[in-house]
TrEMBL record:
PANTHER family: BIFUNCTIONAL UDP-N-ACETYLGLUCOSAMINE 2-EPIMERASE_N-ACETYLMANNOSAMINE KINASE (PTHR18964:SF149), ROK (REPRESSOR, ORF, KINASE) FAMILY (PTHR18964). This is ROK family protein. Belongs to the ROK (NagC/XylR) family. It comes from the Bacteria.
Length: 406
């Protein structure tokens, strides 16, 4: 490295993380855009890009992008296609999925697993980590970290699954510790000596993070995400690019907003919560359908909407669920004032089936709905909780690439 480049890099070292995040999220496709976004000189931006390329994280295309009507052509920037990955894992009511995910939210390899989730969480955590370790062995990719999404609020700073309501786990299961032990047991390497560091989080929180960076939430300042999983309802809020998790990781438990005071008893001890009034089981029950054991409740609900929406009973059930969901969203709009709402799981399918009804309910019930309605959009990423687990694992690298990669 020349003395000039060294000096420029020293000036721009604090920009390495922000520069990597700009390329990672697709907001800096060229070196000219990177220069403008970072507010540095062209020479410093060049040194920063060159260092990120030397670390194996991005590619600087020597062929410049086509110039516009003014200015010089600029070199293209992209994540390195053969670069390092993180191991992402998700546990849900019917099993798990493991994946290797590169920068840019790119899924490199994936391995699903179906199994009855045992009462001892260590068994399924061991299984999903071993599946991920197998993918690492098969691909030979370098691993820089690991992330796990679980269908429960995860309390901080201990990393315990506080309320895995739709699993048979005990309350307070130490999922972060078990994940770290499984990574060590499976020999999943980190960037330095020793096993990969594991981070854990709630599945909807992580889905919101992924959608904000790579999906339907891109460009939003205050993003509200509400989604159904196989059972229950979760929510998350991203403020200025960061998850709002509250004082101990338990913020945005939107599933326990009451939308039908005389409704079904909820696991939390209340009645008529979103969690039991607008999830897949609630929809199937309202439509007069008996759930079967063959596929997940979420898939059964989606299939029913897609194939039998013309049936009056199915349509009436969908409208009932939409109206209750709209009540909950309107309350959240009044409290949080988001600039965008995205919906996942069954809620996404309900929005697709009748977008105007849901938007009308939210507008009618929210204080600011009529003067400036909040956009309500479907989530767009497949496996967004899995991509979000990868985002959490990538975060130390995005914060300080040199420290992590040494």
């Amino acid at each position: 490295m020349t003395q000039t480049r060294t000096t420029r890099l020293e000036r721009g070292r604090g920009a390495l993380g922000p520069a990597l995040e700009l390329v990672h999220t697709g907001r800096a496709p060229t070196r000219a855009v990177l220069t403008a976004e970072l507010g540095v000189t062209r020479a410093t931006a060049g040194a920063v890009a060159a260092e990120l390329e030397a670390l194996g994280l991005i590619t600087v295309d020597a062929r410049p992008a086509a110039a516009g009507s003014q200015g010089r052509p600029s070199h293209r920037l992209s994540v390195a296609p053969g670069g390092p990955v993180v191991l992402a894992a998700q546990i849900h009511a019917d099993g798990f999925r493991a994946a290797l995910v590169g920068l840019g939210g790119r899924m490199v390899a994936t391995a699903p697993g179906c199994m009855t989730v045992p009462a001892d969480p260590s068994h399924i955590i061991d299984a999903v980590v071993e599946a991920g370790a197998g993918l690492l062995r098969e691909t030979g990719r370098r691993c820089l970290g690991a992330g796990l999404a679980v269908p429960s609020a995860v309390a901080e700073p201990d990393g315990t699954a506080l309320n895995p309501l739709h699993l048979s786990w005990p309350a307070g299961a130490p999922v972060r510790r078990l994940f770290a032990e499984a990574l060590a047991k499976a020999g999943v390497p980190g960037p330095g000596e020793g096993p990969a560091t594991g981070v854990t989080g709630n599945d909807v929180n992580l889905a919101a993070l992924a959608e904000h960076r790579h999906g339907a939430g891109r460009g939003a300042r205050h993003l509200l995400c509400v989604a159904t999983g196989h059972r229950g309802v979760g929510g998350a809020l991203v403020l200025d690019g960061r998850l709002h998790s509250g004082s101990s990781g338990l913020a945005l438990e939107v599933g326990h907003l009451t939308v039908n005071p005389a409704g079904l008893p909820c696991h939390c001890g209340s009645r008529g919560c979103l969690d039991v009034e607008t999830d897949p089981l609630a929809f199937l029950t309202a439509a007069g359908r008996t759930p079967g054991p063959e596929v997940s409740l979420l898939q059964q609900a989606r299939d029913l909407l897609r194939t039998e929406y013309a049936d009056p009973a199915v349509r009436a059930a969908a409208e009932l669920i939409v109206d209750r969901l709209g009540l909950g969203l309107a309350g959240l709009v009044n409290i949080l004032n988001p600039d965008r709402i995205i919906l996942g799981g069954l809620h996404r399918a309900l929005l697709d089936a009748d977008p105007e009804r849901l938007r009308a309910v939210v507008a009618d019930r929210s204080l600011w709905g009529r003067s400036g309605s909040v956009p309500i959009l479907p989530c767009t990423l497949d496996f967004n909780s899995l991509i979000g687990a990868a985002e959490a694992a990538w975060q130390p690298v995005l914060d300080d690439p040199l420290t992590v990669l040494g």
